[in-house]
Amino acid sequence: MQFLKWGQAFLIVVSHTQERSLLSNVLETVMPNDAWVADRNFCTLEFTSSIASKGGFFVIREHKKYPWKPLGKEKYIGDIETGKIYEKLISIVDKHAKEHTFRRIRVDSFPSVVPSH
Q1: Do residues 68 and 90 touch, judged by C-beta distance below 8 A?
Q2: How far from 72 is each of 45, 89, 116, CA to CA, in Å?
Q3: For the residues of 35-86, what is the DSSP string, one character each?
Q4: pLDDT 10s digits, 13-30
Q5: Cα 57 to chain center, whole Å?
Q6: pLDDT tens digits, residue range 65-92?
Q7: What is residue 30's three-state secondary structure?
Q8: pTM
């Protein structure tokens, strides 16, 4: 298997590779103030807490099994063309029992509008 880093994108040459098995390689490259964008398959406690511990930031679509606890109420932020935006603070606890506080953004999409004929 060949593992390439292109800018800040990681390209996996072998398509049969489970992406999560390569997270340790990716985490070695995280630097303070980095901003990471990833699919929900990368929304794990290890990945998000490691990025935060190294002073980085992330935008990752939440995986349904991501174990977080709310810290207060959700707050309405505003509208976009396709829906409404909300945010709330959440807490997660990593494998070292360290608590991390993150900001969770939720987009409540409008139902599709079907044009009348």
Answers
A1: yes
A2: 21, 7, 42
A3: EEEE-GGG--HHHHHHHHHTT-EEEEPPPTT---EEEEEEEEEEEETTEEEE
A4: 555 556 666 788 788 888
A5: 9
A6: 999 999 999 999 999 988 999 999 999 9
A7: coil
A8: 0.77
